[in-house]
Amino acid sequence: MGQENHTDVVRSILEKHSNTEGALLPILHDVQDTLGFIPNEAIDQIGKGVNRSRAEVHGVVSFYHHFRTNKPGTHVIQVCRSEACQSMGGEEIIAEFKRQLDIDFHGTSADDRVTLEAVYCLGHCACAPAVMVDGVPRAKVKISDVSDLLGDLGGMK
Amino acid sequence: MTTKIYVPRDSSAIALGADRVAERVLEVIANDKLDAMLIRNGSRGMVWAEPLLEVETTEGRVGYANVDPTDVPDVLGAAMANGGQHSKSIGVVDELPYLNNQERLCFARNGITDPVSVEDYTAHGGFKGLHKALKMGSEQIVEEVTESGLRGRGGAAFPTGIKWKTVLGCDSNQKYIVCNADEGDSGTFSDRMTIEGDPLVLIEGMTIAALAVGATKGFLYLRSEYPHAEKVFLEALEAARGQGYLGDDICGSGRVFDIELRRAAGAYICGEETSLLESLEGKRGMVRAKPPLPAIEGLFGKPTVVNNVVTLASVPYILANGAKKYKDYGMGRSKGTLPIQLAGNVKRGGLVEKAFGVTLRELLMDFGGGSASGRPIRAVQVGGPLGAYIPESQFDMPFEYETFSQNGAMLGHGGIVVFDDTVDMARMARFAMEFCAIESCGKCTPCRIGSTRGMETIDKIIAGEDRAANAELVEDLCDTMLNGSLCALGGMIPFPVMSAMKHFPEDFCLEPGLEKTAA
């Protein structure tokens, strides 16, 4: 999607929220849900739209772990780092994802297919360890599941 | 008669394969032309049995645990033909001790009803509390909630009635009800289960709160990590509006109230009420200094009730059955029930709603069945990442706010994370500091900088560098964080750190009794 289209997308999102109280988070969510990330140039445009400075909008975007300013891979895998998942071997699952994808958290695999994110609790603490792949939760994940899971996404070695 | 088959749409059940089971059920119904229908219910809270398929019979609902899609034809065949004999059958679900030994007030309907069906909700006692509240004055509602002894279930345990009374007493053209569903504590999922399994009870609770204080607008501030809860809640809002339970004329009373769902964005600190309000206003989630209290100057500077999901979901029962009935449960100043979440390395993890007073050991052994790994339980963390690590010697403590607090621990939101004897408590203490460093909003220096310094110092202890002196430094740092932070993040992260050092000094290669003022 080109920059021009980004501008149009952001404009229509700003219009949709013109009467929303405290609209910045809903706007940022809509932009990221549509484009996959919040492009740098959108920050300027959003700032003008909500009558806040570019610095303020940047400050909000960078405060929240959920928002990203770089284009993610085709698939996003969120792996839980919290205590409940650790108690069931979550650290080993994380290490295996990093090893197979050859990336660290917030990184995207060399073939642009997978972005790996850390999350702190997905609410599946009674069936840990848990991950979420493109919004689909998986629990009681075993080390041997990691390659299957990545295989299901296609294009992996 | 058409047989009802239930497969949960709860996201933990889905994470264990419930969607694929449900698809298979629909295929089998179609292929075998069964006189049956599929209902996507909430979860019963027996996460260890998920995906739990239930079939309605004359004896009651018969359950089949840990069902795999390949089991579905046989399970349905058995259930429809001869009363349900199958290797995965666990019998009539309502008669299982795991459920039978609970006191489910807040979770009375969870797993039983279709979460977004107003008809199902009312058939199971829903909206009784609201109808009563509509006939009462604001003061009377507040009085009833105060009398019940209900305290905030998010973790702070502040008396709900007093908070409501403050908001009621404010003169303002606009007041808000904000429901805090930013359930970030590891080991907790009762908010998620409520929203996914019985969202209408939360809508009813928020509406009663609105009637009590004179608010016309509510917000549900929901974690971005809970996409399924978001979907269910939006459906429930539509259903409630469609039948006049929200909107410009609630149940024909002329009263106005509606709820808007707002998605959070992955910041743990936004579970703290003032940073939550900042976030709702479209700002960085920086903690506010109190006073002013949110009850007086809250969202957009207006009087605001900020309550946790379970707190608000407890209100309909209180209104429907009376404060006295609620107060009869519990012990001491901890009245009513707490939905407790058994999590981590535990054999039968799930949701256990019990009156206050149940002991940790009963929860871990009788309900939980011990560890999942089969190894001895060495420590549990109660109350999320800011909660203390509790050793086996304290497992007979009753689950009650004051007892926990006297023992340097806290109940928080009622989550219990179980660890077996392979846990390295020095690593857990380090993780607590690391988590604080990642999630600190940055307002208070002890939390912002201290967490990083704490992590580094624990690293030195782990590496064997001048252990005793560094342990003293950690202790000193914890004292500064505890006393020098505005909110519970910096102020309570010392609890897991110091309790780990106090109860498990061997993991830090420290001599027992070295620490002096451990939490």
Can you offer a commentary on this structure?
The complex is a heterodimer of chains A (157) and B (519). The mean pLDDT of chain A is 95. In chain A, helix 1 runs antiparallel to helix 2, helix 1 packs parallel to helix 3 and helix 3 packs across helix 4. Chain A contains 7 helices and 4 strands, in the order H-H-H-H-E-H-H-E-E-E-H. By secondary structure, chain A is an alpha+beta fold. Chain A has a 4-stranded mixed sheet with strand order 2-1-3-4, with helices on one face. Chain A has 2 domains: 61 residues, Arc Repressor Mutant, subunit A (Orthogonal Bundle); 78 residues, Glutaredoxin (3-Layer(aba) Sandwich). Chain B starts with a strand and ends in a 16-residue tail after the last helix. In chain B, helix 20 runs antiparallel to helix 22. Chain B folds into 4 domains: 98 residues, Glutaredoxin (3-Layer(aba) Sandwich); 210 residues, NADH-ubiquinone oxidoreductase 51kDa subunit (Rossmann fold, 3-Layer(aba) Sandwich); 90 residues, Ubiquitin-like (UB roll), CATH 3.10.20.600; 84 residues, Up-down Bundle (de novo design (two linked rop proteins)). In chain B, strand 7, helix 11 and strand 8 form a beta-alpha-beta unit. Chain B is α/β, with parallel strands linked by helices and 519 residues long. Classes of the chains: A alpha+beta (157), B alpha/beta (519). At the A-B interface, helix 2, helix 4, helix 5 and strand 4 of A face helix 1, strand 12, strand 16 and helix 17 of B.
Summarize the structure.
The complex is a heterodimer of chains A (157) and B (519). Chain A is an alpha+beta fold.
Name a few traits of the molecule.
heterodimer, A: 157 residues, alpha+beta, Arc Repressor Mutant, subunit A, Glutaredoxin, 7 helices, B: 519 residues, alpha/beta, Rossmann fold, Ubiquitin-like (UB roll), 4 domains, five-stranded mixed sheet, 22 helices, 15% strand
Corresponding CATH architecture of the largest domain in chain B: 3-Layer(aba) Sandwich
- The separation of the N and C termini of chain A measures 28 Å
Structural class of chain B, please?
alpha/beta
Number of helices of chain A: 7
Label the overall shape of chain A. elongated
Low-pLDDT segments, ≥5 res of chain A: none
Overall strand count of chain B: 16
